[in-house]
């Protein structure tokens, strides 16, 4: 079915979508408040890149702690806008009978991915802030990154599988 021929449906947001958005907004607020509280304790130079062992190998100004948080916020806003247009997504078996189910499934997938990505960027900012503190804890960066990738691709796989079941 061509995009121009697809029905444009007004589907109410699910409780899950609302809960994920509220959770993400609360995490942004908590992260921002925490960063503001810790701001004065940060040194002028903070790590902005880490090597394979979790040791910093790139340094920048302390404003760099905000960069992942801002990137996460921009992605969250962009994906929130994308959620409003499920009729423009790619579908394998879309027809008039299953359009509402497919749209809802795809929209929930985008919402969950949006939340996962945002939480990961908040974590990156927190990790930089934590390493920059007085105790300079070395983190195992690979475990959270591997977990993030597994969770992200598992979520996508689940919703793609579910879209086949909803045809």
Helix-strand layout with pairing:
Layout: H1 15-38, E1 45-50, E2 56-61, H2 67-83, H3 99-132, H4 142-165
Antiparallel strand pairs: 1-2
Basic shape: elongated
Structural class: mainly alpha
Q: Uncertain spans, ≥5 residues at pLDDT below 50?
A: none
Strand content: 5-15%
Q: Specify Rg, calculated over alpha carbons.
A: 19 Å
**Mean pLDDT across every amino acid position:** 88
Number of strands: 2
Taken in chain order, the helices and strands follow as HEEHHH
| Relative helix content | 55-70%
The main sheet comes to: 2 strands, antiparallel
- State the oligomer: single chain
* Strand order in the sheet with the most strands: 1-2
**In whole angstroms, how far apart are the ends?**
13 Å
